[in-house]
Amino acid sequence: MPPTPILALAGFMGSGKTTVGTLLARQLAWRFVDLDARIEETAGLRIPEIFERLGEPAFRQMEADQLRAALGRAQELKESVILALGGGTYAQPGAPEFLRNAGIPVIWLDASPEILLGRCMTMTGRPLFRDEPSFRALYAQRLPSYQLADHRVDSSGEPARVVAEILTRHLVPAGNAILLNGASRST
Ligand code: S3P
Predict the structure, then answer these.
(1) What is the DSSP letter of 96?
(2) Centre of ligand 1 from the C-alpha of residue 110, in Å
(3) Ligand 1 pocket, 47 CB below 6 A?
(4) pLDDT digit string (tens) for 106-137?
């Protein structure tokens, strides 16, 4: 895989994409882009409102559009970017192939459904977090997609440790870009 100035973080709700991504970007002195935040800014609505008023298919369309826009902007400006995907982005049909073809490495932040559930219970603003059975079912349904990521990192621990693991075990600096360490798949 050639050096790339963009690294995407995938993972289920509560996996720490935003927290880990913010810290990682700070350490690398890269820009942090949060796909959910981009969608909210562009739509002028919070995510629960988008789901409520426009429905999930409209949200998925915005998500796909903003993903393309974020990659395009980073490439155009030659900016080095850590891109936090939404929890469902990488599980949408064609998303892993799209990112692979664009040459964007993806790290899957993985944690057990129990840990993810514990984190999401205390937070609001997630329209797809309804109850434990549906949360677990969605996790199981999406797992095969996350397993397509280039690397898997255990994200059950403290965010700072997750970042340290990514920096020491998974990334090799290459100027203002990074290489993923080895060509290993997450499975
Ligand atoms: C979603 C996860 C959310 C957000 C939206 C849909 C999902 O992102 O994109 O609510 O489909 O799992 P987080 O994983 O950042 O909560």
Answers:
(1) H
(2) 15
(3) yes
(4) 999 999 999 999 999 887 788 899 899 999 99
